TrEMBL record:
One of its GO terms (cellular component) is cytosol. One of its GO terms (biological process) is retrograde transport, endosome to Golgi. The chain crosses the membrane at residues 6-35, 56-74. This is Vesicle transport protein GOT1B isoform X2. Belongs to the GOT1 family. It is found in: Golgi apparatus membrane. Keywords: Golgi apparatus, Membrane, Transmembrane, Transmembrane helix. InterPro entries: Got1, Vesicle_transpt_Got1/SFT2. It holds the Pfam family Got1.
Length: 127
């Protein structure tokens, strides 16, 4: 969990600092390594290389590779798109969990935000 957390931190910090190549590269490596340690190598490979997720995996890992090569802005755009394609099945669960958190749940249930969150929480809207 620590590797994944540090990976997310470095990715966020790298984007805050105007897409710093080194921080984004460290964040990508730590995030993927942390994911492999959390769910195991075999499950990680099975998750990323399922037949219906090959497009998403290509975008995500291609974005990681492009960031490592040195084009952070293009790489992060590809990576974020691949991330949303890969993990879109988890979004309804995450939205349901956040709605139960006291302050965040109130914010997500505001009239304008509620409809956006409902659309984002649908599992089949991102193609």
């Amino acid at each position: 969990m620590g590797l994944t957390g540090f990976g997310v931190f470095f990715l966020f910090f790298g984007m805050i600092l105007f897409f710093d190549k080194a921080l984004l590269a460290i964040g990508n490596v730590l995030f993927v390594a942390g994911l492999a340690f959390v769910i195991g190598l075999e499950r990680t490979f099975r998750f990323f290389f399922q037949k219906h997720k090959m497009k998403a995996t290509g975008f995500f890992l291609g974005g990681v590779l492009i960031v490592l090569i040195g084009w952070p802005l293009i790489g992060m755009v590809l990576e974020i798109y691949g991330f949303f394609l890969l993990f879109r099945g988890f979004f309804p669960v995450v939205v349901g969990f956040i709605r139960r958190v006291p302050v965040l749940g109130y914010l997500l249930n505001l009239p304008g935000i509620s409809s956006l969150v409902d659309k984002a929480g649908e599992s089949n809207n991102m193609v």
